[in-house]
Structures are given as structure tokens and as C-alpha cells.
Amino acid sequence: MRSDVTLHPLDRARLQDLLHAAVxxxxxxxxxxxxxGPGGWTTERRSAFVRFHESRSLSAHPVETTxxxxxxxxxxxxxxxxxxxxxxxxxxxxxxxxxxxRGTGVGSAVLELLLDRxxxxxxxxxxxxxxxQNSAVRALMAGIGTELVADGDELVGxxxxxx
Length: 163
Ligand SMILES: CC(C)(COP(=O)(O)OP(=O)(O)OC[C@H]1O[C@@H](n2cnc3c(N)ncnc32)[C@H](O)[C@@H]1OP(=O)(O)O)[C@@H](O)C(=O)NCCC(=O)NCCS
What we know:
Layout: E1 5-9, H1 12-25, H2 28-31, H3 43-57, E2 65-71, E3 74-83, E4 90-97, H4 106-120, E5 125-130, H5 135-142, E6 149-151, E7 154-160
Parallel strand pairs: 4-5
Antiparallel strand pairs: 1-2, 2-3, 3-4, 5-7, 6-7
This protein binds coenzyme A.
Coenzyme A binds at residues 30, 94-97, 102-108, 130, 134-137, 139-140, 143.
Domain N-acetyltransferase: 5-163
InterPro entries: Acyl_CoA_acyltransferase, Bact_Acetyltransf, GNAT_dom
Protein name: N-acetyltransferase domain-containing protein
């Protein structure tokens, strides 16, 4: 596993670095919910990205925990753990990595680090869902022995955490 990949809790300073990484190296639809209007990183979409993370992770009552992903100290993406409603002990994992860093083992390292974080916070299961077209997530999960199965329009998988 790559040793230059690290996770750091999102804070306001890192949010600016994360916005920069997203604008430079990712498509808005890969990293945030859709925002109506012209495509690309418009001023409105940049503000929505910041508001999205502020409300979900930096508010007084955060709904999920977000980490910035750094490679040799440089922010290249984000990973999150969000408690699943009505399933105590289960968190949903989500990850995006800047295009120029994909396919080089960053995702595999992030997955291991994210599972460690979930375990350390007392969770016993991590849930993943993606689209059938997302070969990278399928390969990532296969790499830890978790097969994704169809659930409606999505592919889903559960990783049991052992201490
Ligand atoms: C999904 C994502 C996080 C994977 O991260 P990554 O750094 O590219 O993954 P890695 O380089 O560690 O590769 C993990 C495995 O996926 C495979 N893989 C990577 N990109 C792939 C692609 N585009 N198509 C098929 N397989 C791919 C690698 O070969 C590797 O498989 P292996 O272990 O059998 O060799 C990254 O592609 C990404 O950020 N995508 C955009 C956002 C996204 O789709 N997020 C997930 C939403 S559920």
C-alpha cells in the first residue's frame, strides 16, 4: 500500500485546499450534488461546493465526517463516512480523487485508511454503493474481497469490520 497517502479531518482551511483540488482536477458531478445552470466550475457551483461541506461536516450538528486526502501533503480529494439511518454501527463510505491521481493506487490506500477510521470510531460495518458503470469502485472493492451486488439501479456492498 502507498505510504504517501494520508487522511486529515476537514476544517475550514483544508476546505479551501479541497475546493482548489476539485476545480483543478475533477468534474463537479464527481464531487458534489448537481447544481442547475451552465456546466463547469461556475462561481455559483464553487460556492455550493463550500456550502455543501460546511453544512454536512463543519456545522454544529454534522451529518457526516469528511477527510481530505493528501498525497505527500498535497490535497487531492476527499473521503467521507456517513452514518446509515436505521442501521446502528453502519457507515456509508464515499471517495473522490482528482483525475491526475487516479489509477495509481491512491484509492486503494484511502479505502484501507477509511476502514481503519470507521473501525476506530466503533463502527462494525461499512456500506458502499455505486453505479454499475463504475469499474474503478468494483475493482477497489474486489481488492478487499468484497463483491458488489445489484440493488435496483445501484451496486452495493458491505464490509464487516473486525477489531
Ligand atoms: C473510484 C476512485 C476513488 C478509485 O480510486 P483510484 O485511485 O483510481 O484507485 P486505485 O488506483 O487504487 O485502483 C484500484 C483498483 O481499481 C482499478 N481501476 C482504477 N481505475 C479504473 C478504471 N477507470 N477502470 C477500471 N478499473 C480501474 C485499478 O486497476 C485497481 O485494480 P487492481 O487493484 O485490481 O489493480 C477514483 O477513480 C475516483 O475518484 N473516481 C471518481 C469519483 C468516484 O467515482 N467515486 C466513487 C463514487 S461511489
